[in-house]
Amino acid sequence: MNRELTWRGKWATHLVLLGFSLLMFYPILWWIGASFKTTQELALPTLFPTKWMWENYRDGWNALPKYTFTYFFLNSLKLNVATTVLHVAAASLVAFGFARMTFPFKNMWFSVLLLTMMLPNQVTLIPQYAMFHSFNWINTYLPLLVPSAMGGAFFVFLLVQFIRSIPRELDESAKIDGCSWFGIYWRIVMPLTKPALVTVTIFSFLWGWDDYFGPLIYLNSVELYTVPLALRMFIDTQSAVAWGQLLAMSLVSIMPPVLIFFFAQKHFVEGIATTGLKG
């Protein structure tokens, strides 16, 4: 009797979870179906089109004058690879210093670092823009790249928590063997923080790929546009919007982050779990 109740309870739980999964997945299904519809058919309450407009993807890819989406994908890829490398390198160095080294006012500076996480970006937007304008960096990638060299408060905090979980005895053994601080960082700590580094890499790439506000503020030339700004160019207030092409290109634009998360999800989950449990 107890076994039957347990079996029924498991089935009920799985059915409820399946129902919620379908509910959450429905917008994505609609998105996929809408990317193959005509503009007129988008108003109909159907999930999939009566006629599949495969040309939405072809025409959307070549819709913008002088540029195909290949150009904007390469812009986004180059920018986000650079920012991700800078984030990982800078955040790991700063986190190692906070987690392992001793220096004056260490706790105070770490508290200041955490306080910056609570500061809205809108507060610093105007001072940053004025500073970058004085440097003649507007309409270049520098305003988007240089701040990445600071590491990012969230990434530093995440790596500090992970590095603190690594036994200090490893550092002492390395010092006995004549290893410098940088040697301990590079040869001992970094290989052991691989899950956390993968997590930082994924977060940095996802946030950079989805960033619309930063490129909108600092980039003026179409040849510098990233994918989010290219998608905005589909919306023209002076003419009809090709919604099918816009939805098709927006669906294609999420493929790189989805693929990265799919192939690195094991390390991502491990990094999040161990960082949350230790430290």
What can you tell me about this protein's structure?
With 279 residues, the protein is mainly alpha-helical. The chain folds into 2 domains: 56 residues; 215 residues, MetI-like (MetI-like fold, Orthogonal Bundle). The chain has 14 helices and no strands. It is globular, with a radius of gyration of 24 Å. The two termini are 45 Å apart. The mean pLDDT is 87. Belongs to the binding-protein-dependent transport system permease family. Its main location: membrane. InterPro entries: MetI-like, MetI-like_sf. It is a multi-pass membrane protein. It is found in: Cell membrane.
Which short descriptors sum up this protein?
single chain, 279 residues, mainly alpha, MetI-like fold
Stretches where pLDDT is under 50 for at least 5 consecutive residues are: none
How many domains make up the 3D coordinates? Answer: 2
Compute the number of strand runs.
0
CATH topology description of the largest domain: MetI-like fold
What structural category characterises the helix and strand content? Answer: mainly alpha
Task: Name the average pLDDT.
Answer: 87
Written as H for each helix and E for each strand, in order along the chain, the element string is: HHHHHHHHHHHHHH
Largest sheet: none
How far is the N terminus from the C terminus? 45 Å
What percent of residues adopt helix (DSSP H or I)? 55-70%
Helix tally equals: 14
Radius of gyration: 24 Å
CATH superfamily of the largest domain: MetI-like
What is the name of the CATH architecture of the largest domain? Orthogonal Bundle
| CATH top level assignment of the largest domain | Mainly Alpha
Shape: globular
Beta percentage is: under 5%
InterPro entries: MetI-like, MetI-like_sf
Protein name: Carbohydrate ABC transporter permease
Organism: Paenibacillus roseopurpureus
Membrane topology: Multi-pass membrane protein
